[in-house]
Each structure stands twice: as C-alpha cells, then as structure tokens.
Amino acid sequence: MKPAPFIYHNPLTPEDAVSLLASNEEAKILAGGQSLMPMLNMRFVVPDHVIDLNNVTGIDGVTNRDNLLEIGAMTRQCDLMANDLVKSKAPIIPEALEHVGHFQTRNRCTIGGSLCHLDPAAELPCLMAAYDANLTVQGPEGQREIPFIEWPLAYMIPNLAPDELLTKISFRYWSLNHGFGFEEFARRHGDFAIVAVAALLEVDDGKITRAAISIGGANISPVRLVKAEEALIGMLANEDTYKVAADIAQEIESISDAYVTSQYRQRLAGTLVQRALVKAGDRVNRS
Amino acid sequence: MPDIREIQVSVNGEDHSAKVETRTSLGDFLRQNLGLTGTHLGCEHGVCGACTVILDGEAVRSCLMLAVQANGHEVTTVEGLAGEEGELHPLQEAFWKHHGLQCGFCTPGMLTSLVAFLRDNPNPSERDIREAISGNICRCTGYQGIVDATLEAAKVMQGRV
Ligand SMILES: Cc1cc2nc3c(=O)[nH]c(=O)nc-3n(C[C@H](O)[C@H](O)[C@H](O)COP(=O)(O)OP(=O)(O)OC[C@H]3O[C@@H](n4cnc5c(N)ncnc54)[C@H](O)[C@@H]3O)c2cc1C
Ligand code: FES
Ligand code: FES
Q1: What is B90-157's CATH superfamily?
Q2: Do A33 and B3 touch (CB under 8 A)?
Q3: Ligand 2 neighbour B48 (Cβ under 6 A)
C-alpha cells in the first residue's frame, strides 16, 4: 500500500502547471488527494510525475459576477460549506456537501478534484448538472469552456485532454426565492450515494415556473430529468405534481452493479425525487 | 533514482528539517522518520480515520497527504495533545474515565479529530459527535464510551463541570 516512485512537481501558477503537464508524459494532477492518494497507495495509478496544485495561486475562492458564481477549481469542500456567497446564493451546495465523506476529508477535497474524478455517484457533479455549470479548462493553447452536459465522456472520464487543467466552475444562480432540496441514499453516512437527487424550483402564484432535477448514481454520470422538468412547468407546486416527476424518475435508465440492481436504483430515484421536490417546494419564498 | 526533497515541518511545536522521498505519506514520515508512532495507519486509503492528524489547525488524513506537502506547515499528532508536564488533555482524561478505548488502535485518530471538532463545536449534541466520528472506525468500543467522553470533555473545556 505504498505509491510507486514518481517525480513530484510543485508549480506556483496555472501556466506552470499546464506546461509541466504538457512536457511530461504520464503526469497526474494532485488536488485534495482524497481520491488520487488512495489510487496511488493501491497502485491503481502509477504516474511518472505528480503535479501538486496546492501551492498554485489564483485558482481557489468564490466570486459573484453578474449573477454568476465563479468557483476556483482548488476551492475545498469545507470552504464551500462555510462560504457566505454559496450559503446565500446556492444553499443546496452546503446541504449536499454534508453527505460527502467526512469533515476530515472535506478539509482537503476540492470541487475541481471531484469534477475531474467524476465518480458516478459524487454529489458535486450532480449539483453542477442541475445548475448547467460551465467548466473552464486551461491548456497550452489557452482556455476553453465546457458546458457540464459535455463534461462526462464516459465512466469516470471527463472531457479533459492530458495537458489540460480545470481552473474554474461557474454557474448562474437562481432567484433568491427559489426552493431547493438534496436527498440521497447511502448505506452509511459519508459513503458515496447509491442514488442522489438535487432539485431546484421556482414558483409564481402557486405554479411552478422553473425546475431542475438532477440524478446522480443511477447511471455512469449525472442525468437531468428533462422530461419531468418540462412536465412540471405550469403545474401547482404540490405533492400530486411531484408524484408525476417521481413516476418519470422511476423509468430512468439505470446501471446494475455487484451490490445494487438497476430496478432498485430506479425505485430509489422515484422516492428521492419525490422527497427532494417536497423539500424544495416547502422552501420556495423562504426569505 | 528516488526523488528526494528536504522539508521543514513543525511537529507538536518542534521544528524538524528532514530529507524525504516524495512518495512518502505524511503518516509514514511521522512514524518512520520522526519516530512518532502514536499516529496509526490502518487502511491507507482514507476510510478508517486512524491516521488523522491536525494540519494547521484542521483534522486531515495523514495517509492521503505526502510528507513533502507538509513542507512549511504545522502538524499536531496525538503525542502533542498532552500538556507540558504530561498532564492529559481534557478529552484524553475523559476517554480514560469513560472507557473510550479498548485496544487503542483508533484512539489517536479519534482524539485528533475530536480536538479539532470541539474547537469549532464547543457545545455539541450527541448526534453532532456521532456525525463527527462517522469517518473514524472503532472495532472495539461500540462508540458509546467515546461519545460519552466527548460530551463530558466539551463541558469540562467550557468550565461547566
Ligand atoms: C473516506 C472518503 C469518503 C468519500 N466520500 C465521498 C462521497 O460521499 N462523495 C463524493 O463525491 N466524494 C467522496 N469522496 C471523494 C472526495 O470527494 C474526493 O476527494 C474527490 O472526488 C476528489 O477531489 P480531490 O480534490 O481530493 O482530488 P484528487 O484526489 O487530488 O484528484 C482526483 C482526480 O482528479 C484529477 N484532478 C484534480 N483536480 C484537477 C484539476 N484542477 N484539473 C485536472 N485534473 C484534476 C486528479 O489528477 C485525479 O485524477 C470520499 C473520499 C474519502 C477518502
Ligand atoms: S490509514 Fe488513513 S484513513 Fe485509514
Ligand atoms: S479501541 Fe480498538 S479500534 Fe477503537
């Protein structure tokens, strides 16, 4: 359980990190290390070069620009949970992070690491899907922006070239009156979810005007329940309406693995969508 | 050829300068280079919590950090919790009183985690404590003594006992 030998690099700027990625074959970025270090210890990955982002400046912190929240890739989960902008503009993020690992791992884990690792059941990708976030990556030729829907290419494979670095995540936050609900089911607190659901709602005069429902864990990457989101528009924000969405969720394409069947995931998706929407509906106009 | 770096780390208030291979974890460095074997390594992939140390005030897994990453930082291990004269930390005292340990393997990680937790949550409920140690596995005690000890330590540390 010890990593194989590698050469360690400690760049101080994103440009230096990118040029190290570009000039070294078999290089791996080290962010919070909470997924990469286990994989190094178990020798699931055996890179020749490890490029540490922990001393790189300018790629962490949260800013608010024209109704967009911009989050640096190296922002740690604990800092997202404590950040006043995040708490007021996107309160679903701290609510979901309560479920991510434990406070000791959240002290190191970064949002960028979570999005690049791209575990199917990870909470942060599920949230970024709900927000239609844009991901900014930097490579030797400059920057490009990727909408979240184009981010997952395959099982745990992000749309990122070997010489590219994720630097920023940005998304438009919802109105102050929006409702939100995050629900997941895991066998033990802090484990990856079997299925997780993020729901956002805007309601006017009792009727739903906007909805986002994102489901993590059911498939190889988070899925938006577009059919249900469309069906909800114009309907009364009540439990009967949410049942319509839950029924659609039960049909969602799901994976089976050694522990859980796809039918079980579908049942969970239905139940959790219902619960997340009830929570979101109760919180509309809370301020 | 091993990749070796010189690092400066403050551990339990004492400055150390050492040469480490870059693939060495902080946990192995503490145990093998500094001889501080209080920090226990159980799983070496982040799930058991036994290796938890306090880095610049925050509880972290020492198996999931490289020793080179601690360069220029401050680390507190279980050896650093007791006072100058060896008097136990109030949390250690409470663990002893409430039978918060049996074999002791998980104890260093429990103590370092809970010391950091109690600083941020001086008045926790039983539920808060159980959630705080959800990432620390104990195969002996059944956790009850640990929770009781932490509840009492919180009171003692606030001068309420
Ligand atoms: C005990 C335990 C429980 C956990 N439970 C959960 C959970 O319930 N839910 C959950 O979502 N996660 C969980 N995690 C995983 C945790 O959230 C991971 O740390 C996270 O997925 C990766 O973030 P990191 O910053 O630690 O990245 P690292 O581990 O450093 O990196 C992960 C991967 O992303 C790449 N990478 C990182 N940052 C960048 C970047 N900016 N640009 C390009 N590539 C990059 C790395 O090269 C590596 O391949 C758990 C971890 C532990 C140890
Ligand atoms: S040894 Fe570090 S968490 Fe188990
Ligand atoms: S006392 Fe033995 S593992 Fe906790």
Answers
A1: [2Fe-2S]-binding domain (1.10.150.120)
A2: no
A3: yes
